[in-house]
Amino acid sequence: AETYIIQMTKMAEDRKATLGELESLVGKLNWLSTIILQARVLAPPVQWLLNRHKLVDADGKLKNKKMKVDLDDFICADLQLGVKLLKNNSSLPAIFTVFNHFHWPHAIDATSDAAQKHGFGWVVHDSGKWASVDFRKSPWAMSLDQNQAEGLGTLSLVRELGKRAQDEKCILRLEIDNSAIMAAVAKEGSFRPRLYAISRAIVMTAAKYKIRVYTRFVESDENVADWPSRQDVKDWLPKFKLACTMHKGPWSKAPIYLSEEVKVDLDELKTLVQLGAPSLLAPTYKINPFLGSFRLFLGCTAYLLDLCFIISWLIAHLDLSYKYPLL
Predict the structure, then answer these.
(1) CA-CA distance, 224 to 232, in Å (whole number)?
(2) Nearest to 77 by CA among 185, 162, 204
(3) Residue 40 — very low, low, confident or very high, per pLDDT cuts 50/70/90?
(4) What is the DSSP string of 227-270?
(5) Which tens digits make up the pLDDT trace of 8-27?
């Protein structure tokens, strides 16, 4: 960890790195994410920057390792975040935390759900605090797909409960019915740019309060937060209250009694997500022009050979002479 801290600190201070160093850093961060969950969020922007400038040979090996590139504010901030995570006591080994979170003395349980082009909702099990957010008031929120909408709801919940979890020195356990968001939260990142930005915002919020966030899959039919995510459904609030009183788990079997509604500002969430939206989103890389032309030639040749084979097979097996006398 000390070696990683020194290397990442130096890179952030110099604001420059060779492509070889970036390639090495991506490998280290991907390996580190198997030990410290949050490290996964740091790899994509470095990989995207590397992809913009790298030149590879026919075997895919990097040819311009010594080329230096500038590190923008976003990546430098990520490197500083990485150092913070490495020094943070909450960054425990992934295997330890995943297998032992049931044995923690205290946890705050909550449930969230979202509906694309509708909104998201969530409820805290013990306090009964809940939120219902309508996307129709925000063009940006309406542009989110289903996974991104689910991620935004999770971000809102972590942001709401972060300070309380820090004060009570406990973890957050969230019920979610979306496997993509479960993976993004568990792996602390995603290589899909917009979902990555939301994942990074979740990591930054958790790091701010030095807390741990865990997810558990719940079937959609058992997700009580489905009702506040659909405000256009008739009588959704009474149905939401009834579903909460009949809540079945998977962690807390006790019923949930709604208390106060929490007002969520979509503009504030958008600002958090935009902090995780780098300008280097195009995952493309340069290839030697000769190699590229040669590969294109081979591809076209193979296509033409396949086409000739198909025509020959048709001529050999089908009687086309009555339609095409020349055959």
Answers:
(1) 16
(2) 204
(3) low
(4) GGG-TTSTTHHHHHHHHHHT---SS--S-----PBPP--HHHHH
(5) 888 889 999 998 888 888 87
